[in-house]
Amino acid sequence: MVLTIGYLRLLREHAGLPAVARQAMEVALPQWKLSEPVNEVVYGTRGFDTFGETFLLLAAVISVILITRPREPRRGYFGEEAAGRREREEVDPHSGHDRDQEQAREAEKEEAGEPDDAVGGVRSHRRPETPDAEPVGSPAPERAHAMSVVVRTAVRVAAPVLAIAGFYLVAWGYSPGGGFPGGAVMLGVALLVYAGFGRQRIAPVIRPGLLEAIEMSGAGLIIAAEALGLLLKGSFSANWLHLAQTGTILSGGVAQLFSFGELIEVGTGLTIAVFAVLGMSHDWTPDDGEDQDDRGGGGSGSGSGSESGSSSSSSSSSGSSSGTSSGSSSGSGPDSGSSSSSSSGSSSHSASGSTA
Amino acid sequence: MIAVNYLGAAVLFCLGLYTVLTRRNLIKMVMGLSLMESSTYLLFISMAYRARSTAPVLVNPPKGQSGTQLAAGNVADPVLQNFCLTAIVIGVAVTAVFLSVVVRIAQHRRTLDADEVRELRG
């Protein structure tokens, strides 16, 4: 079906431009003073489309934030669970002294290469403040929290060039470019610096509070730019700014303003999304409680409270959790396979499997 | 010549659909979705093309032509290129949401197999 549609569309190669496209081409120079019709379509004549798309992106970013949200509010994307753990130890010193959990936490900390000052700093003497203070030729790129000196120098050269290029794409809106590619380039700069220098160097800038505020101000700028057209000129996304000469930075009027708002919106939005996913850590804190919730839900479905209690205790004593339990439920025998349709049945089988 | 583009878009779409339908690894399913999205971009750009047309850019028109002449001449369709931009942004948004959901699933179930996360519990 796709093929037939495609071949029907083949006829378009020799067809004339549709009226919408022709009109966009003709309107771009005299009315918007933009020599880039695609930008004119995106931010001018089809501005409402882009407006909706912007807020679709915003909605996606918000849902990513919601999905990746940690249990307690944090100021940074990385490493603050250490501080939360210390606090928890103070409040409730008997929670989480399970040996397996301790081991898992140690391993996770090792992996993450967290600054240990929050928990007491056993290994803090091994890590200098900035990656540049680390002696050249020291082993283990996998232990270091930044990349090697070669990469760092390259990032120092490339990141400013890239950042300027991102702004260039937006500011010179009369040539190919615009807010979306500019924002993507900004994300690239943030990721490059993160990869080169590690999280400590970007933590003052890349933090949820700041980025979300900037993003919302970008969204506010876009709304204001478009709604003012409605107020002043009588139609949404109409131009209400003075149009400069073609070939200058301000030549697009509202289109350029919209493009700049889009740069803020897309740049910060993508950065938030990427760092939220990157910094998405499993909160180990309520590990056993969570399992209890899992099993409790399944057990109450089967209606026997004692069974759910035993299953939760067995799961917390065997430090491995739900992945292995589901594995054992599938491997515990043919009867579990036959009763796989009901979730309560499988959970009771998994309990028997892990006790046996 | 442009037929190759349409064929490529169709092949990409089918490849993505095949990946989504047959793989059980959630990451691979997201990759298949991205593949299907990219086939849409290719389709849009190919549909915008006209025989021997130039890009819809009026900066530095070729010799002997003004910008307005170029605008009235044989250019590719800027509206479809705009749609392609829109599709790219939406694709990024969708992929971001899917990936974060996949990471949460992997954290809670310790598996990426779509068959193992079928029960609605927890």
Global structural class of chain B: mainly alpha
Strand proportion of chain B: under 5%
The N- to C-terminal Cα distance of chain A equals 54 Å
Overall pLDDT confidence of chain B? 84
Percent helix of chain B, as a range, is 55-70%
The beta-strand count of chain B equals 0
Give the helices and strands, then pairings.
The complex is a heterodimer of chains A (356) and B (122).
Chain A: H1 2-9, H2 19-32, H3 37-45, H4 47-67, H5 81-91, H6 99-112, H7 149-171, H8 179-197, H9 199-202, H10 208-233, H11 254-278, H12 287-302, H13 305-317, H14 322-331, H15 334-338, H16 343-355
Chain B: H1 2-22, H2 26-48, H3 67-72, H4 78-109
Characterize the structure shown.
The complex is a heterodimer of chains A (356) and B (122). Chain A is mainly α and 356 residues long. Chain A has 16 helices and no strands. The longest helix of chain A is centred in the middle third of the chain and has 26 residues. With 122 residues, chain B is an all-alpha fold. Chain B starts with a helix and ends in a 13-residue tail after the last helix. Classes of the chains: A mainly alpha (356), B mainly alpha (122). At the A-B interface, helix 1, helix 2, helix 3, helix 4 and helix 11 of A face helix 1, helix 3 and helix 4 of B.
At a glance:
The complex is a heterodimer of chains A (356) and B (122). Chain A contains 16 helices and no strands.
What keywords describe this structure?
heterodimer; A: 356 residues; mainly alpha; elongated; B: 122 residues
